[in-house]
Specification:
The protein has 5 helices and 11 strands, in the order H-E-E-E-E-E-H-E-H-E-H-E-E-E-E-H. By secondary structure, the chain is α+β, with helices and mostly antiparallel strands. Strands 7-6-5-10-11 form a 5-stranded mixed β-sheet, sandwiched between helices. Strands 1-2 form a two-stranded antiparallel sheet. Strands 3-4 form a two-stranded antiparallel ribbon. Helix 1 crosses helix 5.
Length: 231
């Protein structure tokens, strides 16, 4: 009986602490975070809900569309690969100048920071899939010595990747000429509902620190939903 009682107490603490953490972050902490914004076009839904007796129409937020790419292990990767996960993504190519090294070094820092948290995944998508095959990406990934296997390096066909960048992540990605690519340096934070929750310069230390903090806020937000669903 004592063992069962201890398990119940631990379960209550696991469920209660994230909600309390979120409360501290949004109301009581020195760094008072508001709930993270949701980016992209919005539409008013035909459904709604009541709040304090007032009817409020629901909002339809932009979500990442379905996609199908290939990871560094040659396995298929799609939106289902990140189902129920928070993830951070960015664009790069393996033979680009120093900026990609800086961005991926910072991504590596994030991977290491969240290596024990299975809620958080990472993805780096090449803008030069003609040269960056799964084999090339695997060699590149190994050179970075990632702290977790939850960092995927993705390739596919050019049209799919560029369309996903523009219409899904709402950033630029295109080939301007031989070995010349235009793409965003932003790292993009995605929630469990495939919605964009933040943009951060992958080469800027202040932005990386902000992203590190806002991943924590998003984790607390998502766990708080679970907490509410149980009551």
């Amino acid at each position: 009986m004592a063992t069962i009682g201890k398990k119940i107490i631990i379960l209550v603490l696991i469920l209660a602490v994230p909600g309390f953490l979120y409360y501290l972050l949004t109301a009581k902490g020195k760094n008072r975070y508001k709930p993270l914004a949701i980016y992209g076009p919005k539409a008013v839904a035909k459904t709604g809900h009541k709040f304090h007796g007032k009817y409020i129409p629901d909002t339809i937020y932009h979500q990442l569309p379905a996609f199908k790419l290939t990871d560094q292990y040659g396995k298929s990767a799609s939106e289902d690969s990140f189902k129920g996960k928070i993830f951070v993504t960015g664009f790069f190519y393996t033979h680009c100048p120093a900026v990609c090294s800086t961005i991926n070094r910072n991504m590596g820092y994030l991977v290491d920071t969240y290596r024990k948290n299975k809620m958080v995944y990472f993805a780096s998508i090449t803008v030069d899939p003609d040269r960056d095959s799964a084999t090339v990406l695997k060699q590149y990934a190994e050179s970075l010595k990632p702290a977790s296997n939850r960092w995927l390096f993705l390739t596919g066909d050019t049209s799919s990747i560029y369309s996903l960048a523009r219409k899904g992540f709402l950033v630029d990605a295109l080939k301007a000429g031989d070995d010349d690519f235009i793409y965003s340096d932003k790292l993009i934070l995605i929630d469990q509902e495939r919605r964009i929750r933040g943009y951060y310069s992958g080469a800027n230390t202040n932005d990386i620190n902000r992203l590190t903090d806002e991943i924590k806020v998003l984790i607390a937000e998502e766990l708080r939903k679970v907490d509410k669903a149980l009551y």
